[in-house]
Predict the structure.
Amino acid sequence: MRTRAWQYGDPEGAPILLVHGFRGDHHGLEPIARRLAELAPGRRVIVPDLPGFGATPAVPGREHDLELYGEWLRSFASEVSDGEYDVLGHSFGSLVVACSLAQGLDARSVALINPISAPALEGPQAFMTKLAIAYYWGADRLPERPARALLGNPVIVRVMSIVMAKTRDPELRAWIHGQHDSYFSSFSDTGTLLEAFRASVSHTVSEYAGAIAAPTLLIVGDRDDITPLPEQLALQQRIVDARMRVMPGVGHLVHYEAVEAAAEELAGFLDGVDRSSGRASRSGERA
């Protein structure tokens, strides 16, 4: 199979791989990718579409569980980099990154935005998760065409978007809803989507925390309904070399609601990793 990916910044620069979340595609991380490329001019920012989402097809003959996505990321990283690279995952992408690291992904540093750090069926959002499971379970019982109509229903997609968006800025809220309307249903088929959903609610990053040895940056929202802040703090304590940046007034959509702040944190974090590893940044070389 072939993975579709988009590249930003210096085509010869040090690569950082950005892994998007469930039901999205590369568009979700594009604002951060573009801004990071501006703030860190020596970077090659690469954002692939996950298998079965966006323009990347599903993997033939395989269940799209977390093990598969971890294998895919290791393979993709080896194709796009012949040396050191950094990796970032958002939401479901944080699970993919964590699983891949446990499988042997050799990233120089790790950044996780809104990591899934708590079991989906526990905590304050357990009821909403059960509703989502029932929704996807019902779609799984339908033929492909009506199942796709149900899963891509614009009213349901809009409700999901309204629940997740925390900003009170009407223009930003409208833009977020437009992003979800445009890209939240760009999955290859309903079977793959349902397999990926099961993977997203069956694991946490905390399961793989012991395998995360590289310097790690956690960027979280203090109003995240998916993983509350205390669970994120607990995850930080389980990773050997982790620092955290909390975005005030932001929920699970840091990649939409706090692009500038997140990109600045990432650029500073990568610069620090560069300095500690002896790698000169492209901007530092010019200076």
Observations:
- DSSP finds twelve helices and seven strands in the chain.
- Residues 282-287 have pLDDT under 50 and may be disordered.
